[in-house]
């Protein structure tokens, strides 16, 4: 949606004969009669939050700093020094200096430990990710001084880095699952997602893709325009994608242009309970037009459209202005009449109880029947129900395995191993594709990790069976691959264990 409107003060022209601006009068009374001084900004924000609490769960307020961060997130770029980092042993460890970014140009390398930022110590003080972001991000053209320790060099190295624009990517993975089947993952629908997706689509088609698995799991949405442009690639001209209508907004309908480049190939869209908003628009359009197969678990259920209204201080309220409807006419917004807490608790209980074991019917949700283009029955009022439901993967391994898998020692060991062997690894595996095909985590490497994990966790050395060893080795390979070649190596490795993707290939 992306539009905004300037804030204006409420005055007599905006009141009715039976109402007036009580909030404005209350502020006046507090100003002139209250016993103590007050923080007007805080009072205003508290009042805004209190009002929004009585509307819907998706009408929200963000202060100037939060609004800037959200905008950067969707616009696909932020201002900073361009490093990926992890906090290990209470120290900021540089995982990668982003290609072409200010840090890479200044000479920052993976493995560097950031000790000082602008003269302030940042090691061994319990620093958080949020604090690191605040210190390293800043306006383009501003300077930040950092002091680092580099393993092979004694003493502290000092760097002066000029912050710049750092692009972010919303299509982290696009590759061929097999000879004819491609895979594309979309993390969110941002300002540049449509062009990233189109570029990925062209590349896979050139490699012979006839079938596509589009992964929208965990994608909470974003810009409507991006969802419309991507959906357009799959539908014939004049097929309906979406309708929008609200009390103060005239009805709008969006149709496919027929200019898409994958209108005939087989399509499977993966969703889960976190897939929301723009993700549901895309999945709903594909399902209602009988264009492809929806697979996974029932989506979030957000069918409300927000419009941003900007305040003079840089803060913003995102107000729900209309509802969207899929081509069959269904609104998939979940009920929120019991309040925000109950609204989100319903989703949590659905995840915990794996409620998708029962396909939604008219008896299980407050909705009417709708018909897809071919006459199949679908339901509104509670998210998009997949055509093929795949439940949460059950715990099939020992507790020892899951403890060794989920401990932070795994990421730390992979980072250390990559850093210590980077030259040998890049010489042997000069590309992500070579690494994926030929790199093998030996038993010696796995046992080295298990000893490292036992030391870090203060647990006994775990004993794993053959399947557990294979799975843990795959995770270890994936993290080493990410340190070397980012997501280009990570997802193709980790997806070999993904049951939903395996099933989508079989289907």
Structural class: alpha+beta
Strand elements, count: 21
Distance between the termini: 35 Å
Into which percentage range does the β-strand content fall?
15-25%
Question: Mean of residue pLDDT?
Answer: 84
- Uncertain segments: 1-15, 357-363
Q: Give the helix proportion (percent range).
A: 25-40%
Provide a count of the helices.
Answer: 17
Radius of gyration: 26 Å
Overall outline: globular
> Could you give a short account of the major beta sheet?
6 strands, antiparallel
Topology:
Layout: H1 22-33, H2 40-52, E1 60-62, H3 64-75, E2 77-80, E3 83-88, E4 91-97, H4 102-106, E5 113-117, E6 120-121, H5 129-136, E7 143-150, E8 153-162, E9 164-167, E10 173-176, E11 181-185, H6 193-206, E12 211-215, H7 224-232, E13 240-246, E14 249-255, E15 266-271, H8 278-288, E16 293-296, E17 304-310, E18 316-325, H9 340-353, E19 369-371, E20 377-379, E21 388-389, H10 399-406, H11 409-420, H12 422-428, H13 432-438, H14 443-457, H15 466-485, H16 487-494, H17 499-506
Parallel strand pairs: 11-12, 12-15, 15-16, 16-21
Antiparallel strand pairs: 1-18, 2-9, 3-4, 4-5, 5-6, 5-7, 7-8, 10-11, 13-14, 13-18, 17-18, 19-20
Helix pairs in contact: 6-7, 7-8, 11-14, 11-15, 13-16, 15-16
How would you summarize this macromolecular structure in one to three sentences?
The protein has helices spanning 22-33, 40-52, 64-75, 102-106, 129-136, 193-206, 224-232, 278-288, 340-353, 399-406, 409-420, 422-428, 432-438, 443-457, 466-485, 487-494, 499-506; strands at 60-62, 77-80, 83-88, 91-97, 113-117, 120-121, 143-150, 153-162, 164-167, 173-176, 181-185, 211-215, 240-246, 249-255, 266-271, 293-296, 304-310, 316-325, 369-371, 377-379, 388-389. It is α+β, with helices and mostly antiparallel strands and 507 residues long. The strands form 5 sheets. Strands 3, 4, 5, 6, 7 and 8 form a 6-stranded antiparallel beta sheet that branches.
């Amino acid at each position: 949606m992306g539009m905004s409107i300037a804030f204006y003060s409420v005055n007599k022209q905006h009141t009715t004969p039976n109402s007036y601006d009580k909030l404005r009068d209350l502020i006046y009374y507090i100003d002139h009669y209250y016993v103590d001084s007050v923080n007007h900004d805080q009072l205003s924000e508290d009042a805004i939050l209190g009002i929004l609490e009585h509307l819907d769960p998706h009408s929200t307020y963000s202060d100037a700093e939060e609004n800037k961060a959200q905008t950067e997130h969707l616009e696909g770029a932020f201002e900073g020094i361009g490093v990926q980092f992890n906090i290990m042993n209470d120290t900021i460890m540089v995982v990668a200096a982003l290609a072409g970014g200010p840090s890479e140009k200044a000479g920052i390398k993976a493995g560097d430990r950031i000790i000082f930022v602008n003269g302030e110590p940042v090691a061994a003080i319990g620093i958080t990710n949020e604090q690191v972001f605040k210190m390293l991000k800043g306006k383009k053209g501003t300077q930040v001084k950092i002091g680092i320790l580099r393993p092979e060099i004694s003493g502290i190295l000092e760097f002066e880095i000029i912050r710049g624009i750092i692009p972010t990517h919303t299509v982290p993975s696009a590759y061929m699952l097999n000879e004819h089947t491609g895979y594309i993952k979309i993390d969110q629908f941002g300002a540049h997602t449509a062009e990233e997706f189109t570029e990925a689509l062209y590349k896979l088609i050139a490699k012979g893709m006839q079938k596509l698995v589009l992964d929208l799991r965990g994608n909470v949405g974003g810009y409507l325009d991006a969802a419309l442009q991507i959906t357009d690639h799959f539908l014939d001209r004049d097929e309906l994608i979406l309708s929008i209508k609200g009390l103060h907004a005239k009805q709008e309908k969006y149709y496919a242009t027929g200019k898409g480049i994958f209108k005939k190939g087989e399509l499977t869209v993966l969703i889960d309970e976190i897939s929301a908003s723009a993700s549901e628009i895309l999945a709903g359009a594909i399902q209602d037009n009988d264009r492809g197969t929806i697979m996974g678990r029932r989506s979030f259920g957000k069918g409300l459209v927000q419009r941003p209204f900007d305040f003079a201080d840089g803060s913003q309220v995102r107000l729900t202005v209309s509802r969207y409807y899929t081509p069959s006419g269904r609104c998939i917004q979940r009920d929120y009449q019991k309040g925000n807490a109950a609204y989100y608790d319903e989703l949590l209980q659905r995840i915990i109880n794996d409620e998708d074991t029962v396909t939604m019917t008219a008896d299980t949700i407050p909705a009417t029947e709708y018909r897809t283009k071919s006459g199949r029955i679908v339901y509104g009022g509670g998210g998009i129900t997949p055509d093929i439901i795949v439940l949460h993967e059950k715990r099939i391994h020992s507790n020892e395995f899951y403890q060794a898998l989920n401990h932070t020692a795994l990421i730390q060991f992979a980072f250390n191993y990559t850093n210590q062997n980077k030259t040998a690894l890049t010489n042997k595996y000069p590309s992500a594709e070579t690494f994926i095909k030929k790199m093998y985590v030996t038993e010696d490497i796995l046992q080295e990790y298990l000893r490292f994990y036992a030391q870090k966790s203060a647990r006994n050395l775990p004993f794993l069976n053959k399947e557990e060893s294979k799975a843990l080795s795959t995770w270890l390979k994936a993290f080493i691959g990410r340190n070397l070649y980012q997501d280009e190596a990570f997802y193709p490795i980790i997806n070999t264990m993904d049951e939903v993707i395996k099933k989508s290939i079989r289907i």
